[in-house]
Amino acid sequence: MDLQLTGKTAIVLAASRGLGKAAAMSLAAEGVDLVIGSRNMESLQQTAEQIRSLYGVRVVALAVDLSQAAQAEAFLKEAAGAFGKIDILVNNAGGPPFGKFESFDDQAWYQAFELTLMSAVRFIRLCIPYLRRSGSGRIINITSLSTKTYLENSVLSTSLRLAVTGMAKMLSNELGPDHITVNNVAPGIILTDRIRETLFHDLPAGMTQEQALQRRAGEIPVRRLGTPQELAALITFLASPLAGYITGTTIQVDGGAVKSPF
Ligand code: NAD
After folding, report:
1. Residue 72 in domain
2. Cα–Cα dist 254/227, whole Å
3. Mind listing the pLDDT tens digit for each residue in 54-93?
4. Is 262 within a domain?
5. How far is the CA of 192 from the centre of ligand 1 (A)?
6. 66 close to ligand 1 (CB < 6 Angstrom)
């Protein structure tokens, strides 16, 4: 299938590793030029170089702390100038900490608010003028399966991602006439460094990492964790002109983990 993405330009955030990096690579494989952002310039440069050498597209790497408003603005200014246009925005950020409701004070909530909700709000607002000019603008937010089902210890993530989900629905209506689609992709348990760090933290005595992985996989209908490429494939399709009639949705990539039929 020709996804008709060659020559498009995408901003992919939190792209030095994990799901953001996989999304950037998958878009690059379809001929998309990229501006990628993350805090750590060294690992971001390595990712940029890897993508350039594999796919021959143009990649600009810019350092940004997504929770900082001024840095978002500075990033966008440079990003917009890099190729003169923006067709696709992939909103992603590191996840807020896991924990029970009573373990988080106001400060933790405000930090999660900046990182998870306000980073998406700001980047969407900054990108809209460019996406309007694109004629097939795309906004894709990476959220979580916790927006569709219970995920233990994820109160910060779940609360703020549901705000992102609601915002995306509202925007799909407001931006539809401009041919801009707005969708959320909700990863289930996808094996990235974040998941490794969480799963392997405080293992019960005698349990190996392999056993921990198998135990987690046993709770998922397809009996395995997902790969970053599986989420990236959906993002790439949603980014394409072929997906112009899909907007206002949240699609999970979760091996069937969400039990609800909706
Ligand atoms: P990851 O930890 O492997 O990668 C996160 C990326 O975000 C890194 O590139 C990191 O440098 C960057 N980052 C973190 N904080 C940042 C900040 N303030 N400014 C700029 N960059 C920042 O995580 P991942 O597994 O790729 O997850 C990506 C997102 O998807 C997270 O929000 C996570 O909560 C969510 N998610 C992931 C899964 C999963 O199974 N992997 C499931 C549900 C939700």
Report:
1. yes
2. 10
3. 999 999 999 999 999 999 999 999 999 999 999 999 999 9
4. no
5. 9
6. yes
